[in-house]
Amino acid sequence: MTAEMKKETLRRENEELRHRLAEAEDALLAIQAGQVDAIVVDGAAGAQIFSLSGAETVYRLTVETMAEAAINVAADGTIVFCNARFSAFVATSTERLLGRDIAGFVPPEDRDAFRALLRRCCTQPVKQRIVFCGPGGVRTPVLLSGNALSQGDSVSLCLVAADLTELESAAYQIEHLRERHVRLQQEIVDREWAEETLRLADRRKSEFLATLAHELRNPLAPIRTGLDLIRALRGDAAACERPLQIMDRQLTHLVRLVDDLLDVSRISRGKIDLRKERLDLAEIVEAALEISESGIGRDDRRLSVSLPSRPLPVEGDRVRLVQIISNLLNNAAKFTDEGGRIELGLVPCGERVEIRVSDDGQGIPRERLSDLFEIFSQIDTGRGGGLGIGLTLVRSLVAMHGGTVCADSEGLGRGATFTVSLPLCADVAQQPMPREAPQADPVPRRRVLVVDDNPDVAESLHLLLTVLDAEVRVAHDGADAISVCAEWTPTHILMDLGMPGMDGYEAARRLRADHPDGAFRLVAISGWGQDEHRQKAREAGFDRHLIKPVAVAELKAILLE
């Protein structure tokens, strides 16, 4: 082959290669433009057709069947494409979703924030929890991830939403279980606290019962001894005077123990009423000092009283205010050694007044100051006696007067100070208190019927009334009293309430029915002294209600009526 021929052959081959290259470039451009659906390839196995739509189909099937929602939206939020999962989220068919604003499928209150999220997604990837909602109140919490897709000058957003319903439900269950666990732990703590409180209350109850037995025996012992002395010294009035004083003091102490117990019971049940009036606190202090004088003066204790010159008017119950101060004085005396010092003072503090009772006695451990006013609480049960209820009464009565009480001590052996704070009245003239009419002595002769099922009580009253120059008869139940009054008209009937058979209430009603002219004074003498018993006695026709034991002064006053 000549050189010219070879040159021509190379030119033709080069031309064919250029033609094939041009065809390949055109084919690539067509494929890129989406104008080619398939390619035919000749090979050793013959001609094979490859569909270019196969990859797209796999892609579309993957997106349609994925567990997450996939949405393609324009930059303004218009839905261009979405899969079936998103359609399920918003309960709307795919055909009705295309071309709609995706912001319309979030709650109205969240739309402004959602549109801001789409704008941010145009420049950077985003990930945020949102809620998709649809017709009928369908709401689906999702974790939305978004990325921008640039196609030339246009930008679309590819959004993928993962359903958080099960995850949040599980989280809620976990939180619920955690809260339940916390509640159970708190219930365990509360139950342990309650059990400990019950154990403490049971221990205090046992200590109280033991102390009560001890405290009741203490005054009963000298009373018993005093009776034996009087019996042995019969006829020697001067020698009998000292045991009589001891018996009277111990009996007063015994009555005070019972009264304190009843007061605690009444206060705890809300059954105590205050008879409030305007009072000068200095007069209350003097009355309390009279009551507590014997206990303070014993063992050479020194008492210092500091009262301001101007009146300190308070509104309160005279008896209860005296009880408050005397309880604090008796408490100070109990824990103050022989020769010790007790101070009582009134200190004005603006619109209030403080009652301060201090001593240099045994003192109080600092750790016990917090529970000092709890019922049955005692610092030293072996010293000075008491049931551990006096300070409880003080706190309750002070609170009923709108005041507060606190205790302070530097510790054992350093003494203690109790401070009661009460509100002062406005500065107006104090109304004079009515004074009791002087009692005539001797008592005019009366006819008295004593009604009590306890023979010793009935006989002792019979003897005392006889000494008071009264004509006395005795009945031991209600029916017996009615029989006596049928043939003998008394001026006074002193009757117990809690008797077997016909009790005092029924007997009083029948006696009033049989004697409507009010020929006699009907007086209840009973160990039952609560307000409901007093009310029931009034309704039955009793004129007065006295609590056992009755002092001779009270009996004289009754016989003068």
Please explain how this structure is put together.
The radius of gyration is 51 Å and the shape is elongated. The protein starts with a helix and ends with a helix. The longest helix is centred in the middle third of the chain and has 68 residues, at 165-232. It folds into four domains: 55-163, Beta-Lactamase (2-Layer Sandwich); 174-265, Signal transduction histidine kinase, dimerisation/phosphotransfer (DHp) domain (Helix Hairpins, Orthogonal Bundle), CATH 1.10.287.130; 277-423, Histidine kinase-like ATPase, C-terminal domain (Heat Shock Protein 90), CATH 3.30.565.10; 447-560, Rossmann fold. It is α/β, with parallel strands linked by helices and 561 residues long. The protein has helices at 3-32, 53-65, 84-89, 94-97, 111-121, 165-232, 237-268, 281-297, 318-334, 390-400, 455-467, 478-487, 504-514, 531-540, 552-560; strands spanning 38-43, 46-51, 69-74, 79-82, 126-133, 139-151, 154-163, 276-280, 302-306, 313-317, 341-349, 352-359, 404-408, 416-423, 447-451, 471-475, 492-495, 521-526, 544-547.
